[in-house]
Each structure stands twice: as C-alpha cells, then as structure tokens.
Amino acid sequence: MELNLDLLKELCLVAGAPGQEERVRKIVLREVAPLVDEIKIDPMGNIIATKKGKEQKKVMAAAHMDEIGFIITHLDDKGFARFHTLGGFDPKTLTSQRVIVHGKKDLIGVLGSKPIHIMDKEDRGKAPRLKDFFIDFGMPYHQVKELVSVGDFVTRERDLVEIGDCVSTKSLDDRVCVFILIEALRQLGTPTFDFYAVFTVQEEIGMRGAQVSSRSINPDFGFGLDVTIANDLPGVGGHETITRIGEGTAIKLLDSSVISDTRMVTFMKKIASHYNITFQEEILTAGGTDTAAIQRSGEGAIVGCISVPTRHIHSTVEMCHKNDILQSIQLLSRCVENMDQFSYDWVERM
Fold first, then answer.
1. In the prediction, which pLDDT does 123 show?
2. Taking CA atoms, which of 54, 77, 266, 307 is between 20 and 30 Å from 120?
3. Between β-strands 318-321 and 166-169, what pairing exists: parallel, antiparallel or unpaired?
4. Is 56 exposed, middle or buried (0-12, 13-18, 19+ CB in 10 A)?
5. Distance, CA of 254 to CA of 44 (rounded, Å)
6. Among 275, 67, 294, which residue's Cα sits nearest to residue 196?
C-alpha cells in the first residue's frame, strides 16, 4: 500500500481553525460518501459517517479536523493586526512565519515582532511572548479594513514537502489522522459492529466536538486518533523520548486526559502482532486527545488510542514517517474488523 500523498497534502494545506472547519469538512465528505452507509453532520459541525456492521454494538473512532490558529482581536491605525491564539502555541514557533487571514477574502500576512537590532540587552535575553507579535499585511489601514475585521480567523501558511522517508508541513496535527480514518474506511469490509467514523471539531480548544458526538453515539468501544510527540532528538535523554519516528504506530497507554483501558491496549497489541503491524507504546505525561471524551460518554466506553509519532508538534514543520502512517491505517482497520475478538476479562496485575 502506498500513501495517497495528494490527498494528505490537500487535507494539511486547507484552512480549518477551531470553529471554522468547513473547508476540511467539504473534503472529508467528498472522500467518505462512497465508503459508508450513512453520513450525518451534527449542529456543531462534526461529521458522523456510519458503516453498518453485523451485530448491534457500536465502535467509534475520532480524528479532529481543526488545527491550531488565531482570531483577530484588533486593527491599529497603521493596518497591523493583533490576535488571540486558538490552541496551544509555543511563541518561538511564530518567528519568521506567514499566515492567512480569512476575511472577506484570504489575505496573506507576516507575523512580525521587534527586530533584534533595536532591542535593548534585557529584551534580547527574554524568550518571545505571544503579545510581542502582530500581523503585517504590507498595506495601509484603509486597505486592510476593507478586507479584515475583528473576529476573522487566521491559519498558518506552509507547503507539504517530502524529507527522506517523512512528510513535513503544518497541521499534520491532526489532518494526518483525518487521512488515516478516511483510508481505514477505504480498506474496511463489513465490520463486525456498527462503525462510527467521526471527524470532530474544536479539539484544539478542549475536545468540544468529541464531547458532543460521543454523547450522541454512546459507543461501546472507542479509538482516539491523534499525533503524539516523537522526542527522538539531539539533547533528549532516552527516558524523555515519548516515541520515535519510523518505529511504527503508537498505542497510547496514558496521557494527561485519559488512561487507556488495559483490556483495549491488550487487544490492540494482539491485533498488531497478528497482522505484523509495527507498534510502540506511548506514555505522554501532558496533552490530551478526543479519546478522553469518548471514554466519558454514556455509561463509559472501552477506549484506546492510535497515535502517530510526530516531531516538531504545533509548528509549521511537523514531521511524520510515511510507514508510521501506513501502520496506523492498518491497526485501525484491523481492530475495527476484529472487535468480536475483544475480551472483557480483566487481567489482574500485581
């Protein structure tokens, strides 16, 4: 199986800040419509694509359509814009970046800050702060105000490139998992149980779409799909390395929002081993995913999470290994196909 890089690129480059996922939604609907039995868009904008199974249990998998972005909060009399973040940003990743403001038309801007040449000694020693940045449109206020308004959404601008055996671009978090969910549907035959492929909104600001959709579905089993930190980098100790790119998909054991059900983790490992799917274990002591919202739905769902090892997360140069993406597709599709083999028995551990 080869990656459909054209589709992955299209998904990553399209704009979709939290609360403005409609462009992503359009692509997803185009791709999944021929693959499922039913499609619903709920009032929040989540896509719930259902593939009917042989038995009446429910399996849900969720990948979020939104990306970290900004919202315009102020235009000054010189035509520069100030903004508020939508999702978690490390301020140092904003230096030397271009953005797209989605006003009356899409408008390119540059993230600017005070040049180092005119900083005093104290300022030079400080880490950059979000409030130090502004958006420069290269035009005067009277032209900017015709196109840009307070409340307009902003996304980052960066192409997708292949680097070695990897792909690098903005918004692999979480468009790579939107891609994985689409491709898993493409591979899936008739599942054992009803399968709900959910493309959620507003994950980056608090898993809001997954909370709503999982309550609506009330699944018996659930899989979150998201990226995770590949901290296999210079200067990082072995004990700090969450995952490594190129060493397979990751099966989440824990993050700050969820402890994966140990029965599900055991099931996922067995499926991976049976189908020769390369995997690694993930323990992430910070960060959260839609998995947590699925777990808390109804009377509680039995959940696990498939994570894609990713370097440089929440930057415009996020990087994933092509084979890790392929292994993730395989793990999801095989787990869904074989859910009837899941064991409810608890394994006692001393």
1. 64
2. 77
3. antiparallel
4. exposed
5. 28
6. 294
d(Cα 69, Cα 18) in Å, to the nearest integer?
7
- Stated pTM of the model: 0.94
Q: Which one, of 215, 168, 149, 188, lies nearest residue 312 by Cα?
A: 168
The pLDDT value given to residue 252 = 97
Residue type, 173: D
Cα(195)–Cα(61) distance, integer angstroms: 8
Question: Is residue 203 among the annotated active site residues?
Answer: yes
CA distance 305 to 60: 11
In the chain, which residues have pLDDT < 70?
Answer: 114-125, 348-350
The residue annotated as part of the active site, out of 21, 203, 318, 337, is 203
| CB-count burial class (<10 Å; 0-12, 13-18, 19+) for 317 | middle
Share of the chain above pLDDT 90, in %: 83
Residue recorded with tokens 């064991």 = 343
